[in-house]
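Reopening this ticket.

The earlier resolution said the output was attached, but the attachment link was broken on my side. Pasting everything inline this time so it's all in one place.
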Amino acid sequence: MERSSVDLVDVLAFVRVVETGAFTRAAERMGISKSILSRRVARLEEQLGAKLLMRTAQGASPTDIGQAYFERASNILVELDAAQEIVAEQATQVAGPIRLTAPLSFGTQYLAPALAEFAKAYPKVELDISFEDRTVDLVGGGYDLAVRIGTLADSALVARRIAPVSKVALATPAYLDQHGRPDHPRDLVHHDILLYSGEQWRFRVGDKWEYVRGRPLLRANNGEMLREAALAGLGICILPNFIAAPNIGSGILEPILLDYPLEESGLYAVMPPGRSTTARVRALVEFLAARFGPDPAWDPCWEEEKRWGVDGPAGRATRTAKSS
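Inline output:
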């Protein structure tokens, strides 16, 4: 078999089946019938002399050799797409599909309206969006872009920091009236605490970081769940400001231990190698950077002061003045 005999559309059909997990969804995404797509995949398998997909009643999944072929073929298609966009860029066009994944809480509260605005500004871009809290395999899942929050591990992915993400410890005023307001992180040992699954609390005390423990009452993998538990008066939780800010502003939740900073993380745009070279992905990343960075609108006034170095009695006086 000559390699040139492989039809790129057949390869694309196979890649779309792996990305979507089903022939029907892949056919819809390509705008062809399921029978035509199935014939194209079968022809590719015949030409390669290997079974690439396991077909089931629920859909399709790649075999071991199919997964290896998918990872390489999908990167080649992305590079080809990027090459084609060089021509499109000369005509200042931003067009084509973007498959994006983002965490649920941030996605629904902040990213959804931003993406709607982006789609309006770039009507030739086709957005395929998934909000979920698990960390997905961008290459294996066929994603062009992920919005992630936290501290990123070293990897071959391309990442751009969009904005800082600060966190705050807080509880209802009623809970604090009943159980006392902690003056120092070590006082948390006497309190009921509400935790992200797998989370450890670490505060900056002087020139070092200190881990603290409380009485774990509830664990959850979702910030809204922790916020609702805190609003019910169950205890103290730590939330990112983008979740906590509206309830802080209304006085329903009260921030505590503001003189002991929590570890700051970041909001990142993360892309597989090659995706960041496409005009449409670059346009979306630049849009998100302008929308959310460098100083997020959801941060309370004291976070802005800490970032600009306002501290001590003068900083606290400024906080009082701003909040009054």
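Reporter confirms the inline version is readable. The chain has a mean pLDDT of 85. The first helix runs from residue 8 to 20.
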